[in-house]
């Protein structure tokens, strides 16, 4: 079975992310990238933010983004849904 939707395609929405590890990870990414604010991040998809995280942290990618990348590869099935 092929899944057409990927969380990487979703826009980041900080209101929906309040109290989640996603918001904490994006806030940390903003601190490491002057010029990137939460408002600017809301203009990006989660996939674009994950790519920015990979470019920013390189081999020191935080655990949240390592898990995100593992769970959200293109064409990957989500047998347990979005956790």
Q: Uncertain segments of ≥5 residues (pLDDT<50)?
A: none
Shape estimate: globular
Order of helices and strands: HHHHH
Determine the mean pLDDT.
89
Strand content: under 5%
Notes on the structure:
This protein is an all-alpha fold and 83 residues long. The chain has one domain (7-71). 49% of the residues lie in helices and 0% in strands. The protein has helices at residues 14-17, 21-32, 38-41, 46-57, 63-71. The longest helix is centred in the N-terminal third of the chain and has 12 residues, at 21-32. The relative contact order is 0.20.
Question: Keyphrases for this structure?
Answer:
83 residues, mainly alpha, 5 helices
Write the topology of this structure.
Layout: H1 14-17, H2 21-32, H3 38-41, H4 46-57, H5 63-71
């Amino acid at each position: 079975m092929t899944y057409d939707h990927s969380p990487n395609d979703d826009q980041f929405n900080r209101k929906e992310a309040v109290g989640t590890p996603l918001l904490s990870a994006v806030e940390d990414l903003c601190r490491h990238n002057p010029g990137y604010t939460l408002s600017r991040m809301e203009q990006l998809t989660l996939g674009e933010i994950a790519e920015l995280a990979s470019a920013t942290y390189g081999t020191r990618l935080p655990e949240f983004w390592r898990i995100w990348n593992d769970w959200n590869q293109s064409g990957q099935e989500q047998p347990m849904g979005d956790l």
